[in-house]
Design brief:
The protein is an alpha/beta fold. Helix content is 64%, strand content 10%. The protein has helices at residues 18-27, 31-67, 75-123, 126-131, 134-177, 179-226, 228-233, 237-289, 295-312, 315-337, 397-404, 427-432, 448-453, 461-470, 474-479, 497-511, 527-541, 576-582, 585-601, and strands spanning 357-366, 372-382, 386-391, 412-417, 420-421, 434-437, 515-519, 545-549, 561-566, 569-574. The chain binds adenosine-5'-triphosphate and magnesium ion (MG).
Length: 602
């Protein structure tokens, strides 16, 4: 929805001018350009303020000629008309030059801040991203950046020139026609501004209602479309449409109230202008009649006032938007100030040798207080080993992997690689050493090829193709009309679960890290494909260290150590034979799965 303009109407207290100070460094490198733009702005304004003067002289000359019919004098007004035309052109020309000069400055600053914010968001921790809706986040950035554009445009193109013009006009009126004129003008402008600010503040509440109604219906509409399949499964199209309609109804109601407040604002502004114009022109008419000033002066005064009030027409809007822009920019800077929970230590160690020994020591972890997930886990993985983790759903297997990858920091205990606590390692070097095939693979909305090449962006085409072969994707890709250039759809939803897993495996094969982690990497595959992939994984993992999480125990019988996890504790560990002899949980599970297999085969 919302083809209408989305004005900023969050509750904001006061104008946050200090934001300008934050922004200033972004503009500093463009000092000369800005100075030039301001020069153009002043010239354009001077030209526009001179226009009523030319008009006055033209009229006075013409008026003189009406009384004195000698023809030679016609040249004089023609020259004045030419000058009038010339300065009108100069006004536009310098305005355009100012736009050209300043546009580049604003865009450069927007680009710079945009990319910094983007980088910063990638630096923030996973917990932050899981807690925040990405939609809201991207809106914050978008708002902040368009806030900069708006602020700059209206500061440079509206506020500053208008202030300059008001001052100039008031001074010129004072010098040429006496203090009464400038007094009325100044008072009118002051009233106008105060009235606009007060009315705009009052209106904000109603505008907020409109926006709230708008985002509510919007959020639901998008959520409903994202859940397209679910809506169909339950035949709830009508339910969805009804809900959407009632939300749009609220939006409509809010819009109506909002329109009334806009009427008040515009009406009041028009009244102030009309009163000021009437008073000034009455004064001028009086002076013309008294012979103090000419008809040309009358036109000049009228011209000044008209010129002055046109930019003020937008004042309510500009005031609200600038206020909003300042708040948005501040919010963006706050985002930039937010410290990631996971940060490299100062002088963090770079893991420059392949992991030889990975040690989990008395590991305790919880995502939320009062709900411990891991309660004292200790085990080691030595170079070249294959260690497997099995256990019930929710026992904390994937969590262990996330901790190893340092998406979160442990609460107690430690994880160390080659004797270094991973909290002392640089995140980049730690993560470069580990390749993960995650439990739920999410793909970028691009081609299969690009998704695989993402594992190592500088890999050659031959290497990517090799990875495709090793992950047993060749057959599938050759069957596709567009081959490896097939788009995978949003989050990779156009691929089957098994295909996605194989893309993820190919991607990790391409990365070729010394430590491999497979989190249920074959869970979505049929037994036959699974066997094929397992062979590949074995091949790839041969000279590697690997950590394998599996539900199907047949895939890990060859592991050097199998860890059985239950409710965040290790209840058994050993190799397959040892665990079978223990006749514990593992042996039990193995028996069940064997029976299952036999009945499947039958
Ligand atoms: N980001 C999170 N915030 C809060 N709780 C979480 C979060 N991620 C996981 N959990 C909880 O932690 C517990 C362990 O989750 P984990 O994903 O490690 O289980 P798992 O052993 O991998 O299970 P599965 O076999 O189903 O994949 C679960 O109960 C889950 O609800
Ligand atoms: Mg898991």
């Amino acid at each position: 929805m919302s083809p209408h303009f989305q004005a900023h109407v969050e509750p904001v207290k006061g104008l946050k001018w200090h934001v300008l100070k934050l922004l200033w460094p972004e503009f500093l490198p463009f000092k000369q350009r800005i100075a030039l733009a301001i020069g153009c702005l002043l010239l354009a304004k001077l030209a526009s303020v001179s226009l009523p003067f030319w008009l006055k002289h033209i009229i006075d000359d013409l008026n003189g000629q009406l009384n004195d019919s000698s023809l030679q004098l016609v040249i004089a007004p023609l020259a004045l008309v030419a000058a009038y035309g010339f300065f009108r052109f100069i006004n536009v020309l310098f305005n355009e030059l100012r736009d050209m000069l300043f546009g580049r400055v604003t865009e450069r600053a927007m680009r710079h801040i945009g990319v910094n914010t983007f980088k910063h968001l990638h630096d923030l921790d996973l917990a932050y991203h899981l807690n925040r809706r990405t939609g809201g986040l991207s809106r914050d950035i978008e708002r902040g950046i368009s806030g900069i554009e708006f602020l700059m445009r209206f500061m440079v193109f509206n506020i500053v020139p208008t202030i300059f013009e008001v001052l100039l006009v008031v001074i010129l009126l004072m010098i040429n026609y006496g203090w009464m004129y400038s007094f009325i003008t100044l008072t009118a402008v002051a009233f106008y501004i105060v009235f606009s600010i007060i009315t705009t503040e009052w209106r904000t509440k109603y505008m907020r209602e409109v926006n709230a109604a708008d985002s509510k219906s919007n959020t639901h509409a998008i959520d409903s479309l994202l859940n397209y399949e679910t809506v169909k499964y339950f035949s709830n199209e009508n339910f969805e449409a009804k809900r959407y309609d009632s939300e749009l109804g609220e939006w409509e109601k809010a819009k109506r109230k909002n329109r009334l407040t806009l009427f008040t604002l515009n009406g009041g502004q028009a009244l102030i202008i009309a009163l000021a114009m009437t008073a000034t022109l009455a004064l001028a008419a009086n002076d013309v009649a008294a012979g103090i000033i000419t008809i040309g002066d009358f036109v000049l005064i009228n011209g000044f006032l008209m010129q002055l009030f046109i930019p003020l027409n937008f004042f309510g809007f500009v005031y609200r938007e600038i206020k909003g822009s300042l708040a948005n920019i501040e919010a963006m800077f706050e985002l930039l100030d937010k410290k990631p929970a996971i940060e490299d230590r100062e002088h963090a160690h770079t893991l420059d040798t392949p992991p030889e020994r990975i040690e989990f020591k008395q590991l305790h972890f919880q995502y939320q207080p009062d709900r411990p997930i891991l309660k004292g886990i200790s085990f080691t993985i030595s170079k070249g080993q294959k260690v497997a983790i099995v256990g019930e759903s929710g026992s904390g297997k994937s969590t262990l992997v996330k901790l190893l990858f340092r998406f979160y920091d442990v609460n107690k205990g430690s994880i160390s690689i080659n004797g270094h606590d991973i909290r002392d390692l640089s995140q980049h070097s730690l993560r470069s050493a580990i390749g993960i095939v995650p439990q739920d693979t999410v793909l970028f909305n691009t081609t299969i090829y690009a998704n695989i090449a993402y594992g190592r962006p500088d890999a050659s085409e031959a290497e990517v193709n090799q990875a495709i072969d090793m992950a047993h994707l060749r057959h599938f890709i050759d069957d596709l009309p567009y081959g490896d250039q097939t788009m995978v759809g949003e989050r990779g939803l156009k691929l089957s679960g098994g295909e996605k897993q194989r893309v993820a495996i190919a991607r990790t094969i391409l990365k070729r890290p010394p430590l491999l982690v497979f989190d249920e990497a074959t869970s979505s595959l049929d037994s036959q494909s699974e066997q094929a992939i397992l062979t590949t994984i074995k091949e790839v993992a041969k000279n590697h260290t690997s950590l394998v999480i599996a539900h199907r125990l047949s895939t890990i019988v060859d592991a050097d150590n199998i860890i059985v996890l239950d409710k965040g504790l290790i209840i058994e560990q050993g190799n397959h034979q040892q665990l079978l002899q223990r006749r514990g949980v593992y042996a039990n599970l193995w028996e069940i799965q064997q029976k299952q297999k036999v009945s499947d085969d039958v």
